[in-house]
Specification:
The structure holds two protein chains of two kinds.
Chain A: H1 7-12, H2 14-17, H3 23-31, E1 34-38, H4 44-54, E2 58-62, H5 87-98, E3 103-107, H6 116-120, E4 125-128, H7 133-146, E5 150-156, E6 159-165, H8 173-176, H9 189-192, H10 198-215, E7 224-229, E8 234-239, H11 261-265, E9 282-283, H12 285-291, E10 298-301, E11 317-318, H13 321-324, E12 337-340, H14 345-356, E13 362-365, H15 368-375
Parallel strand pairs in A: 1-2, 1-4, 2-3, 4-5, 9-13, 10-11, 10-12, 12-13
Antiparallel strand pairs in A: 5-6, 6-7, 7-8
Chain B: E1 2-5, E2 19-22, H1 27-37, H2 42-45, E3 57-60, E4 63-64, E5 80-84
Parallel strand pairs in B: 1-5
Antiparallel strand pairs in B: 1-2, 3-4, 3-5
The chains are: A alpha/beta, B alpha+beta.
């Protein structure tokens, strides 16, 4: 039995009621339906705003983070006035301002193997707006086990992907990506950057697909992967099939319950660029500033050249991480060396590479040049 | 020649090239030709035993080569092969 619409709701949704594919029946369906949005960041922002505006009766938000100013270039549900507020509360308040007739349930916690099934079970559809591989595999597996559609979107710099992974009717995320890439190969948005409007494009597509799935209209992206490139303004589609060897939805699936996804992916389930190479290999910004007094110390900056225009340390040698393996001969392993990047993640990887190549006198600047800008030289900007 | 489309995360190993012309009668030889041209890619695409890593998705036109004949899938002049990357940003 579908819920009825009030006089006010009929007016509010007038433009939906005019479309035959939605109509009064469809709008009631939306009111009686529910969606869980994992992540209220770049993708989650437009998804949450549009699903709220569309009148989905109950929307859940999962996030554990607080709003910071680096979010605002793309996370349009938040604002300057909500910096330092919980993201789920900031998003909820904005959604209820758009549409006070819906219910918003907030989960101020990371989405983990411990809580995911409990949180997800009461929702009709899940929307994957996370920023890391472990949570993407977790969201997929939860959807497979609970028999729910997973409206997927993912972004990097100018590239976006979208699909509807629904194991009952087609492939799941693992059918396409049985294994995550090795840690470090694909930079996160915190490390590699992202065009601010890109999650707007992909998130809006996710919201569209979620509405189609809930209304049962049109052809959702089940069995198809959209590949979008903002620079070329290209929308390409490829076909996806169920993978008979899929470990979670295939006939011989051996993964029957949620696993340890951080272990599976070899990376943490969050995208905070706060790199450390481990206590033995780290040096803090303050320690480095002491060591630099009067002593010769080689500084190796592994960021991309365009980042040096934002902030740089004098006399540092710049070899971007991607070219380091090919340029080891330019470095002297007998020299004391400190490696740095924006916040310590890429430099930790560079350190690993150098140690594997036999370097012993190397240290990683913990927290990167951003930590230096915070603790040593406040004239440098933090980015 | 086959056109091989390189995804953004791997372009740091192809001097920024988005497309690389590769020679090869099948997917395996075309991929080998790619890493001959850009050796820095090898460790990312192949494991220590010289096998293609499981996360590498190769599509010929709109089809996953895994659904065709895998690495043995034959290539014709003018085909477009693309590596579909795993990306996780949100």
């Amino acid at each position: 039995m579908l819920p009825g619409l009030t006089r006010e709701e009929i007016l509010r949704y007038s433009r939906h009621l005019l479309i035959p594919e939605v109509g009064l029946e469809g709008q009631k369906k939306l009111k009686g339906s529910s969606a869980l949005i994992i992540g209220t960041g770049g993708l989650g922002s437009p998804v949450a705003l549009y699903l709220a505006a569309a009148g989905i009766g109950r929307i859940g938000l999962v996030d554990y983070d607080v709003v910071d100013s680096t979010n605002l270039q793309r996370q349009i549900i938040h604002g300057t006035s909500t910096i330092d507020k919980l993201k789920v509360e900031s998003a909820r308040d904005r959604m209820l301002d758009v549409n006070p007739d819906i219910e918003v349930e907030i989960y101020n916690e990371p989405f983990t193997s411990e809580n995911a099934m409990r949180i997800a079970q009461d929702y009709d559809v899940l929307i994957d707006g996370t920023d890391n591989f472990p949570t993407r595999y977790l969201t997929n597996d939860v959807c497979v086990f609970l028999g729910k559609p997973n409206v997927y979107g993912s972004i990097f710099r100018f590239d976006g992907q979208a699909s509807v992974f629904y194991a009952k009717e087609g492939p799941c995320y693992r059918c396409l990506f049985p294994e995550p890439p090795p840690p470090g190969l694909v930079p996160s948005c915190a490390e590699g950057g992202v065009l601010g409007v890109l999650p707007g494009t992909i998130g809006t597509i996710q919201a569209t697909e979620a509405l189609k799935v809930l209304l049962g209209i049109g052809s959702p992206l089940t069995g198809k992967l959209l590949l979008y490139n903002a620079l070329d303004m290209s929308f390409d589609f490829v076909k996806l099939k169920k993978n008979p060897k899929c470990r979670v939805c295939g006939p011989d699936a051996d993964i029957k319950e949620l696993i340890d996804y951080e272990e599976f992916c070899g990376v943490p389930g969050f995208d905070h660029d706060e790199g450390s190479a481990g206590a033995d290999w780290d040096i803090t910004a303050l320690e480095l500033s002491e060591r630099l007094k009067g002593n010769h110390l080689k500084l190796l900056d592994v960021r991309e050249p365009h980042e040096l225009e934002i902030s740089a340390l004098p006399n540092a040698t710049n070899i971007p991480l991607g070219t380091l393996a090919a340029r080891l001969s330019e470095l002297d392993s007998a020299e004391d060396m400190v490696i740095l990047c924006k916040s310590g993640t890429r430099s930790a990887r560079a350190l690993e590479l150098l140690v594997t190549a036999g370097f012993k006198k190397v240290k990683n600047l913990k927290g990167g040049i951003n930590a230096w800008a915070q603790e040593v030289d406040e004239s440098l900007p933090i980015y | 020649m086959t056109t091989l489309k390189i995804p953004t995360p791997l372009r740091q190993y192809t001097n920024g090239q988005a497309e690389v012309a590769v020679r090869g009668s099948n997917v395996a030889s075309a991929m080998r030709n790619l890493v001959e041209q850009y050796p820095a890619l090898e460790q990312h695409l192949y494991n220590g035993d010289g096998e293609m890593r499981a996360f590498v998705n190769l599509f010929l036109g709109e089809n996953n080569t895994r659904d065709l004949q895998g690495l043995e899938t034959p290539l014709s002049e003018g085909d477009t092969l693309r590596i579909i990357p795993s990306i996780a940003g949100g």
